[in-house]
């Protein structure tokens, strides 16, 4: 359908209301099919405002550079010493001419002018494409063009563009997309600040075919190696050191449709010098032949995605497999094998609250498909005789349950967990709150497989409130107002409309700064290396502090949505009041944690600055004045 025809149809839908819209779509099945296709992108990102977001148009207006700012940026970049040449690589195959002109025009408009544009025509059937390319090259000596004799696909054409490139770095640009005018300047700014950088990537959004509206922004975290295996985190805009790009062999034609994802996976296997610019520098054009509008417009891309991840997993040699997420087909689940049958020690501090702790323990014993575990229940001073009777009965009926005692005062969650870990026998430790309840039967297999990986320090799971319709924990984010640390998406309805970033935060395995000890898995050797929980943080922040120490030691923290538990949060813990000694200690612990981890508090690498003011929801907020 022509762009003007679609816009006219859209205006009719908007003017007539929902009933009229349904009637109109039923009379025009081709329009109905096109609308349905456009709504299959990551759920809700094109349909409704995401949970808690300010309108993206307002945000975009607030951060846009005006003419004076762009001129100042041009002047600044012209004076930079050591200005790298950036080669912009574009594979061209019969794009609408107006899209190609806009694409090239966005490069010509760059504030950073030390670039070359390498365009390769992949044997386009329409001779007008080559005519347009040669005309563009005549207008600017920085534009270089090549032409393939036969159609080889996007990887072959991009490899030809790479062969032409003389730049220190290469940027990847699709023939129908556009760059923000400050794009190359912001990438080069990062490279100049850290000359060892091998890859820089930015945030991105979508732009309608007529260019009038930008929507569906993707505000990304800093590089998250595990997330890259579940979804193409990098995508656009990506800038790679040319020597690294050539060393890994360029693009693989066998992965056409996911060739950039395949490339990023191979590059990430040889370098960790990957940086992120938290700013939208690239706009992906929405039209009927673009995966920006509908991934199913290129069905071969799904098979290519699987090949790309399978290749990367095979190269890693860890025996992992990949499968398409059954609920969210744009995502992929990596399954690492459990190596051997390690004993898992599940450490549960508890006091009284029989119904609560029994529900937790019964769910572990009855629902877990991994059976080689022990439950080490650390009683911290129960006085209810019924609790002691239940302890004895459970120990008699299942030899995987045993009791340890902690008699310190005042109560210390940190010390009681340390005691339980010291008395346990397992290779893998799982710290578990007594107010949790197992939902997914393979929760232990999932956590253990992740925890066994050498570079992983701690693993956390998806926790839901009772009813399983509201998120309680999907990782922990640091430096969020007075809260210091917050559970990601806590309180968000599972079925709420989510932005791309929110959706990935919830549904994709990824790296985070911390996870809660309400359910935390860790190898014993790593736990002992860290010295367990810091008892100076008696009740709170001890789990987050442990994760921060793990991160500082070079370990990754992993959140996985594929292990799910309910968290009946707080039912066994009394609330603090203003005249309570524990409240004063809580505030002291918060102050200690904030001073100890001031750098992470200032900038959590896994929380995009666009969400700085939104609390746990990762919702888009307007930048502070002067920011």
Describe the structure.
- This protein is α/β, with parallel strands linked by helices and 627 residues long.
- The protein folds into three domains: 3-38, no CATH class; 84-318, Spore Coat Polysaccharide Biosynthesis Protein SpsA, Chain A; 344-475 and 512-596, Alpha-Beta Complex (Spore Coat Polysaccharide Biosynthesis Protein SpsA, Chain A).
- 37% of the residues lie in helices and 20% in strands.
- The strands form four sheets. Strands 12, 13, 14, 15, 16, 17, 18, 21, 22 and 23 form a ten-stranded mixed β-sheet that branches.
- Strand 2 (115-121), helix 6 and strand 3 form a beta-alpha-beta unit.
- Helix 1 (3-27) packs across helix 2 and helix 11 (259-268) packs parallel to helix 12 (300-316).
- The longest helix is centred in the first third of the chain and has 25 residues, at 3-27.
- The chain is elongated and about 90 Å long.
- The two termini are 42 Å apart.
- 47% of the residues are buried.
Summarize it:
37% of the residues lie in helices and 20% in strands. Helix 13 (354-367) links the parallel strand 12 and strand 13 (373-379).
Number of helices: 21
Rounded radius of gyration (Å) = 27 Å
Fourth-level CATH superfamily of the largest domain: Spore Coat Polysaccharide Biosynthesis Protein SpsA, Chain A
| Termini gap | 42 Å
CATH class category name of the largest domain: Alpha Beta
How does the major sheet shape up? 10 strands, mixed
What is the third-level CATH name, the topology of the largest domain?
A: Spore Coat Polysaccharide Biosynthesis Protein SpsA, Chain A
Strand content: 15-25%
Question: Share of helix among residues?
Answer: 25-40%
What number is the mean pLDDT?
A: 89
Low-confidence stretches: 1-25, 28-48, 572-579
CATH architecture designation of the largest domain: Alpha-Beta Complex
* Estimated structural class: alpha/beta
């Amino acid at each position: 359908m022509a762009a003007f025809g679609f816009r006219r149809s859209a205006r009719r839908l908007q003017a007539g209301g929902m009933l009229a819209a349904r009637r109109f779509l039923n009379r025009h099945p081709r329009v109905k099919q096109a609308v349905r296709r456009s709504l299959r992108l990551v759920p809700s990102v094109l349909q409704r405002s995401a949970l808690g977001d300010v309108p993206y148009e307002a945000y975009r207006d607030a951060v846009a550079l005006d003419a004076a700012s762009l001129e100042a940026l041009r002047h600044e970049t012209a004076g930079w010493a050591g200005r790298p040449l950036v080669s912009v690589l574009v594979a061209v195959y019969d794009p609408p001419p107006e899209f190609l002109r806009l694409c090239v025009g966005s490069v010509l408009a760059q504030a950073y002018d030390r670039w070359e544009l390498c365009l390769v025509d992949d044997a386009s059937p329409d001779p007008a494409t080559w005519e347009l390319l040669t005309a563009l090259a005549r207008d600017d000596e920085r534009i270089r063009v090549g032409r393939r004799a036969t159609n080889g696909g996007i990887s072959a054409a991009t490899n030809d563009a790479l062969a032409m490139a003389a730049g220190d770095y290469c940027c990847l640009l699709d023939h129908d997309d556009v760059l923000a005018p400050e794009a190359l300047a912001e990438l080069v700014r990062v490279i100049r600040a850290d000359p060892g950088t091998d890859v820089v990537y930015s945030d991105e959004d979508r732009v309608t075919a007529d260019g009038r509206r930008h929507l569906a922004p993707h505000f990304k975290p800093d590089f998250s190696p595990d997330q890259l295996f579940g979804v193409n985190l990098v995508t656009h805009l990506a800038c790679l050191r040319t020597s690294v790009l050539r060393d890994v062999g360029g693009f693989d034609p066998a992965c056409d449709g996911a060739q950039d994802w395949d490339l990023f996976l191979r590059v990430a296997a040889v370098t960790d010098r990957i940086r992120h610019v938290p700013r939208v520098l690239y706009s992906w054009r929405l039209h009927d032949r673009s995966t920006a509008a509908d991934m199913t417009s290129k069905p071969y891309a799904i098979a290519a995605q699987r090949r790309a991840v399978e290749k990367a997993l095979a190269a890693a040699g860890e025996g992992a497999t990949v499968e398409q997420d059954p609920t969210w087909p744009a995502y992929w689940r990596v399954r690492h094998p459990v190596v051997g049958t390690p004993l898992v020690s599940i450490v549960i501090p508890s006091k009284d609250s029989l119904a609560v702790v029994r529900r937790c323990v019964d769910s572990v014993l009855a629902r877990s498909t991994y059976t080689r575990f022990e439950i080490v229940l650390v009683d911290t001073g129960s006085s209810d005789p019924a609790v002691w009777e239940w302890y004895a009965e459970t120990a008699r009926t299942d030899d995987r349950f045993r009791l340890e005692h902690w008699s310190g005062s005042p109560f210390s969650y940190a010390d009681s967990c340390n005691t339980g870990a010291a008395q346990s026998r397992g290779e893998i430790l799982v710290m578990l709150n007594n107010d949790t309840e197992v939902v997914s039967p393979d929760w232990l297999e999932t956590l253990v497989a992740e925890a066994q990986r050498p570079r992983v320090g701690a693993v956390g799971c998806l926790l839901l409130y009772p009813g399983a319709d509201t998120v309680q924990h999907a990782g922990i984010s640091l430096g969020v107002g007075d809260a210091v640390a917050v559970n990601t998406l806590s309180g968000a309805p599972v079925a709420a409309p989510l932005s791309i970033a929110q959706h990935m935060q919830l549904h994709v395995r990824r790296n985070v700064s911390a996870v809660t000890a309400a359910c935390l898995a860790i190898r014993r050797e790593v736990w002992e290396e860290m010295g367990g929980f810091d008892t100076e943080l008696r009740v709170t922040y001890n789990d987050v502090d442990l994760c921060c120490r793990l991160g500082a030691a070079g370990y990754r923290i992993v959140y996985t949505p594929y292990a799910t538990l309910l968290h009946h949060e707080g039912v066994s813990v009394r609330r603090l009041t203003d005249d309570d000694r524990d409240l004063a200690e809580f505030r002291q612990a918060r102050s200690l944690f904030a001073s100890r981890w001031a750098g992470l508090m200032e900038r959590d690498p896994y929380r995009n600055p666009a969400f700085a003011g939104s609390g746990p929801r990762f919702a888009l907020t307007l930048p502070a004045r002067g920011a």
